[in-house]
Amino acid sequence: MTSIQTYIDTYHHEGYVIVPNVFDPDGMATALKEMENLFYGMSFEEYTIKSKRNGDYAPLESAYGFQFPCGVDSLDCLIENEFFLDLMESCLGTNQMRFIGGGLFLRSGPTDDLPAEHSWQGYHTDHHTSCYLPHTCDSDLNSYLLAGVFLHDIEDENAPMHIIPGSHNQIAGLIPRLIQEDNFGHWCMIGDIRKIPKFAPPIPVKGKAGSILLRSSYSVHAAVPFSDERNRRATWGFSVCRASAAAWTTRHIGERGLETEFTHAFWTKTTPRVRSIFGWPVPGHPYYTEATLELLSAWYPGIDLTPYR
Hints:
The chain has 309 residues and is of the alpha+beta class. Helices cover 32% and strands 16% of the residues.
């Protein structure tokens, strides 16, 4: 049995780690069914049959179709897994995490347009998706963590993400030269990884349903094309940063907004530990006076305020 420390060490050495058996596969099947229904109004299999029969695949607005929370308990409650939270905190090196963004990510063969034309193109980091500041040579200083829950088995036919091991510790030192050589562009996109001999060969990120992928925002990765358009890749994603770096690592919230129509209900039902990720003061904080507790009770009817008293 692999120890938690081994997973943490792998994350810091490789820039990512796949942890199996975090969630029950039966629960993943339920979550996947709900996710597909949100995107298609039916299962993916029914969608492909119907679209093929009609001779046209109705495109999705975006692979990132639904933000967190999405209003479906089987998906929203995934963040309440204590082991999952422990792993994220341990990899970040802090028990004070802050939410950056999250939601449902779905790539499908019929509508996929993410991969580049060549296998050496399309590699990038996700760092500037949320952070205002550039990479630093100390990847623990302002990098953040992206987590993905595998809602089904992800194998070669599901076009798994390809990631370059160890690139999270290399990219900051490479960027000045890459810019000079016109090999680094908008959204941290590298033009041609063949020109970076220091990089290790890309590795496909595969795993069983219920596994999680934890990766650094500094890790260089890319999408690859589907070998068969009848396949898809569905994951539930969540990004967190260190509270100490939240001031410059939360652009995602500023651009897309933290509130969704389901946020109020989610905060009413979830745990104090999860609320703290969104910036709520932890239990015991001076904020929780009898007056504010009374207001919270009125603001969030049905919320259990026992931990805050």
